[in-house]
Amino acid sequence: MAKRKKFVNIPVLTHLAEESHQWPYENPLAPGHRMCPGCSIPPIVNMILLEYGKDTVAGSNTGCLEVTTGVFPYTAWTVPWIHVAFENNPAVLSGAEAAYKAFKKKGKIDKEIHFVSINGDGGTYDIGFQALSGAAERNHNILYVCYNNEGYQNTGYQRSSATPIGAFTKTTPVGSKIVGKEEKRKDLTLIMAAHEIPYTAQANPFNYKDFTRKIRKSKDVKGFKFINVLQSCTLSWRTKPEEAFRALKLATESLYWPLYEVIEGRFWRINVKPSKPKPIEDYIAMQPRWRHVLKMPQVLDKIKEEIYTKWDYLLRMEKLSKELAEDLGFTLDEIFEMSWDEYQEKVKPKLKEKTYLS
Amino acid sequence: MAVELIKERKTVAMTGNQAIAEAMRQINYDVVAAYPISPQTELMGFFAEYLANGLVDTEFVTVESEHSAMSAVIGAAASGARAMTATASQGLLYMYENLPIASNWRLPITMVLVNRAISAPLNIHCDHGDAMTARDSGWIQLFSENSQEAYHNLIMAVKIAEKALLPTIVNMEGYIVSHTIGNVNLLTDKEVQEFIGESDWRKNVPHPLLDTDNPVTYGATALPDYYTELKYQQHEATFEAKKYVKEVLAEFNELAGTNYDIIEPYKLEDADFAIVVMGSTAGVARTAADILREQGIKAGVLKIRLFRPFPVEEIVDALKHLKAVAVLDRHDSMNALASPLFQDLAASMYHLPEKPLLHDFIYGLGGREVTVEDMLKAFNRVINLYTGKETRNRFVEYLQVRE
Questions:
Q1: I want to staple A124 with a disulfide (CB 3.0 to 4.6 A). Which of A146, A280, B33, B316 is the partner?
Q2: Based on the domain organization, do B187 and B295 belong to the same domain?
């Protein structure tokens, strides 16, 4: 049997070292926060803030990130950060962004300030959905990142609508009558793409370059942007801390967590297409919370149905987008690589021309 | 200031909602969050018209719920903006979670509460249920008797909130004040602007979120080792707030020629019996007091303008010499004891060696019209309780229930 490689993500560390000179500590999130070993939230947050820079107002709902970074009288945040309640950070930042716009209009502030809301899946998929949808609909200039660890982890791991089918949680335990969660995951990324916001994406901290590129793109886009990032949770997934990134790698390679991006609900592009997708069983086997479904063929089948039909759907959406792009005189890659302003100037008029009834 | 419309003082007949919208225009808030609920809805509609016609340069956030309205206002105020919202009844209950956060954070937010009954049953008309529900939220609360007071209260509230660094509610009764026309003496746009001062985001709050050179964390968790101290600071601030309210009222009186104080006694100096009331019913109570005076009974009325923080000393001073007091509560606490205003008064007077008889009347629920007869009934009841002609087995009774 081949020796298992340990994953130390060299590119991440290098990038962190390069960008660190502008920050008071080596990372935007100062050391001393209380995250669990193996938690991929700190890399996620640091990648975001390294791209966005110090003139960023961040915010979070109640959850793991909030509780581990802001325990009075300490804080790990080296940018302004606001936490109000469990479900309302997008609404809170809507107000902050409105205030910023008001002052900018009156010439009382001239810095360019970005707004980033970083929240867990509990506060995003469930209780926070209203505020997220509202802020998206009003198209505030805010980046919303969901660190998706597939459950309410801060309270000890209860199911959220992001928890996969069959998984053990404290509210969907594995018992003799009921075995784990009975519902499949809600696909929030699709829902946000359907909001037709400027930019929607699904990302993976293992695929560091892709994630960083998406963060960078979101900074250039004007309006509401949403990135759903899978995040391994040491305590609940029970994946070993040193194996966390290997599990995340498998998540995308097995098609469980496809990486894609959507512009205005109109153009869809898949970023990673495994030539030989790994069996979903390999990914499940790495998570003790979910492993029992390997012995439950019916549930395993449901899981496969969910991920493979979704993959097929995404492939078809990408194909349609490619066709649309070509009809407008661009490649799909060109449309995603160009700046937001260029997209407005070059692509939108052609889209109108092509699709308006004459 | 976007457009200067009123250059000379004038008197206009306006409803409470119109008067508030006018005050909002003159204040020219940085951020306003709006979500509709009767009877507040048209207030924001009037303001939206000002905005649509370029009369204000406010950032108007039409949020998707009241909870988000207060969340947005908190985000804006923490950023240093002059921010407000308005709501009523269920809307207030929905945003309630955020109220103690705003007050512990000392954010100078203003909110107009168009007082409406709380479900169930569903009722869109006036009572003080929403205001009373918020009485432990740590917010300053002012009550308005009519459109004129509502207009003045909001202008003063901006300054009160910024001086005391506590969020402030201006209560205005639904339909009775919000939709009823009264004479409103309007100040000029310049006078309002000078009174409240320019909005400086670096100064409105001590630690603005937008100051990225001095990053701050809002909303840290406080464990058992620190929570008490952080609440104690808020506790002291609440006691301090009364003096700021008085200061602002005095300044405003000079500007507008009004005679506002945190309480408004009416024929109380030599009175034996009094009604204590908040809001528009004060007028009806005063008429009843006049009728009793003509009959030789020394009746008076105490109208309370500042409900929170509760002005203990002033109220006790005004009432302590009385024989009996009829407390009017426009809300039922459903606690088998008595309602909020009675409880506040009883607690304030408990330690006096000599104190008036207190009796609680629940009135005006769900918009039930309050008549002079009702007020006379209340007066007569406490007079008879005092003389022993009648007895009671509870401290509270309904003034207007139809048997």
A1: A146
A2: no
